[in-house]
Design a protein that fits this description.
The chain has about 260 residues and is of the alpha/beta class. It has three domains: about 1-60, Alpha-Beta Complex (Aspartate Aminotransferase, domain 1); about 65-100, no CATH class; about 100-255, 3-Layer(aba) Sandwich (Aspartate Aminotransferase, domain 2). Helix content is about 35%, strand content about 10%. The protein contains eleven helices and seven strands. The protein has a four-stranded parallel sheet with strand order 5-4-6-7, with helices on both faces. It has a three-stranded antiparallel sheet with strand order 1-2-3, with no helix packed on it. Strand 2 (about 25-30) and strand 3 (about 35) form a beta hairpin. The longest helix has 16 residues, at about 100-115. The protein is globular, with a radius of gyration of 21 Å. About 25% of the residues are buried.
Length: about 260
């Protein structure tokens, strides 16, 4: 009965199966059964559960300082910023750690692009999933994400993804010349207000189908953005921190965003 009450008191649906601990790649339920967590929680536990180095760092910090306003400097935040810059693409020279979710990180990047360019519109891909807030729901692809809501954030353009298996333009990757990038010119000319600030993409789409763009797509998209002075933003919520074999997928594709 206690488990039923716990489940029914949650706003969102969850399994009645209760997990009690984790170790490495494994989750353990209350009956002692072990499961490989292929999602790494929700992609946020790239080091697995209960890594001893992580636990030791948390315990040590608990005895010193567990929270501080971002107006002050602290050793953990400074060290994190330095480490991130050391492994980030070379053009990244600043770190903005004042976010607590992928949605807020993407919104922050978009706000910076809008502020820097003085423009407002954002280009995203058909199958993109950029977050759960109203702004990110509005900018994400697929109608079902927006259908329940009477108002959505204005100023977005959705363009076809580089999905070669189901090419929107019915071309073959060996001969198309990355037409899906070229045709963004038409969206700028005929579907925008002429005030596009940024293109935000997942280097490898997550919820949209784990689509890996063909070779050459991102260098061409980078050149397109440079030509039109559009900020290129990579949403690396599901591809960053080593998940593609590089610290960031941008390095895998040889392209620097922003």
């Amino acid at each position: 009965m206690e488990t039923a009450i716990e489940v029914e008191s949650l706003y969102y649906p969850v399994s009645r199966q209760k997990m009690v601990r984790g170790e490495g790649i494994y989750l353990y339920d209350e009956d002692g059964n072990a499961y490989i967590d292929c999602a790494s929680a929700t992609f946020n536990l790239s080091l697995g559960y209960s890594h001893p180095v992580v636990l030791a760092a948390i315990r040590a910090q608990l005895d010193e300082l567990i929270h501080i306003t971002s107006s002050f400097r602290s050793d953990p935040v400074s060290a994190l910023a330095e480490r991130l810059l050391a492994v980030a693409p070379a053009n990244m020279r600043k770190v903005h750690p004042k976010v607590c979710s992928g949605s807020s990180a993407n919104e922050g990047a978009i706000k910076m692009a809008q502020y820097a360019t003085g423009r407002s519109e954002i280009i995203t891909l058909f199958r993109s999933h950029l977050g759960q807030t109203m702004m990110m729901t509005s900018l994400s692809g697929n109608a079902f994400r927006k259908a329940p809501f009477p108002l959505v954030y204005p100023g977005s353009l959705h363009v076809p993804d580089p999905y070669c298996k189901r090419c929107f333009y019915e071309k073959e990757p060996s001969s198309c010349g990355h037409l899906c990038v070229d045709r963004i010119e038409d969206f700028l000319e005929y579907a925008s207000s002429g005030r596009v600030a940024a293109i935000i993409v997942e280097p490898i789409s997550g919820n949209g189908g784990n689509i890996v763009p063909p070779d050459g797509y991102f260098p061409k998209l980078r050149a397109f953005c440079d030509k039109h002075e559009i900020v290129l933003i990579f949403d690396e919520i599901q591809t960053g921190i080593g998940r593609t074999g590089h610290i960031f997928a941008a390095q895998h594709f040889g392209v620097e965003p922003v």
